[in-house]
Design brief:
Blueprint: E1 2-3, H1 4-12, H2 16-24, E2 28-30, E3 33-34, E4 41-42, E5 48-50, E6 53-55, E7 62-67, E8 96-97, E9 106-112, H3 115-122, E10 130-136, H4 144-150, E11 165-170, E12 173-178, H5 185-192, E13 197-205, E14 208-209, E15 219-221, H6 224-228
Parallel strand pairs: 9-13
Antiparallel strand pairs: 1-4, 2-3, 2-5, 5-6, 7-9, 7-15, 8-9, 10-12, 10-13, 11-12, 13-14
Function: Responsible for synthesis of pseudouridine from uracil-516 in 16S ribosomal RNA.
Catalytic activity: uridine(516) in 16S rRNA = pseudouridine(516) in 16S rRNA
Pfam families: PseudoU_synth_2, S4
């Protein structure tokens, strides 16, 4: 059993004082009945609704989003909208991003409140592949794929990148798979060979591929099978 006000604090992310306020405003129901007393104790699996939205302490949450251009991967930014405004979820402020994307980069974004799981996605020691579709300002020169496959020294770095695989799709379009996550890595890799990235879209992380049915800005929960891709075998 758990106090109703504590339940609200943990699921909605409000303070105890704010919980008392929403209860007084009759915005909370338990098993279909409006409850105004935060001191009552309820079962953790009780049917609790806040403004008509169901609340649950069911455990970690995992989402896949098709990140649109122009949104930043942070909870707060003075200049640009954040990806979190695209989430219609209670307690969205408790979620964090497993592998950020730049404001002008689109594609597969993972959001969760499971820190151990996101560590397995982002930690360099797990060498989790990330594949990007890259559009370039100039045609790709001969030998670039071989250079990336050997590892390339980026400006300001002491060591070369891990070997990366490049598949050329068109004169100015490639798929690039990297195995680490250095700051602005893809853009810096092409800058190092005298080219400029003009468009960048992440298609996959490990064996998890962006759902092609998700339009830019849309998201969905991960399936159990998708979550398990980043769990210890």
């Amino acid at each position: 059993m758990i106090r109703l006000d504590k339940f609200l604090c943990e699921t909605v992310g409000v303070t105890r004082k704010q919980a008392a306020k929403v209860l007084k405003e009759e915005r909370v129901t338990v098993d279909g009945e409006v409850i105004k007393n935060g001191a009552i104790k309820i079962a953790e699996d009780a049917d609790v609704e806040f403004d008509g939205m169901s609340l649950s302490l069911s455990g970690p949450r995992y989402y896949m989003m098709n990140k649109p251009e122009g949104y930043v991967c942070s909870h707060d930014d003075p200049y640009n909208p954040t990806v979190f405004v695209l989430l219609d979820e209670i307690g969205a402020e408790k979620l964090h991003i497993a592998g950020r994307l730049d404001c002008d980069t689109t594609g597969l974004l993972l959001l969760t409140d499971d820190g151990q799981w996101s560590h397995r996605v982002t930690s360099p020691k797990h060498k989790c592949d990330k594949t990007y579709r890259v559009w370039l300002d100039d045609a790709v020169e001969e030998g670039v794929a071989a250079t990336f496959a050997e590892g390339i020294k980026l400006r300001g770095e002491k060591t070369e990148t891990l070997p990366a695989q490049m598949e050329q799709l068109d004169e100015k379009e490639v798929l690039l798979t990297i195995h680490e996550g250095k700051y602005h890595q893809v853009k810096r890799m092409f800058a190092a060979v005298g080219n400029k990235v003009v468009g960048l879209h992440r298609e996959s992380i490990g064996d998890l591929i962006l759902d092609e049915e998700l339009e830019p800005g849309e998201y969905r929960e991960l399936t159990k099978e998708e979550i398990a891709l980043f769990l210890p075998k």
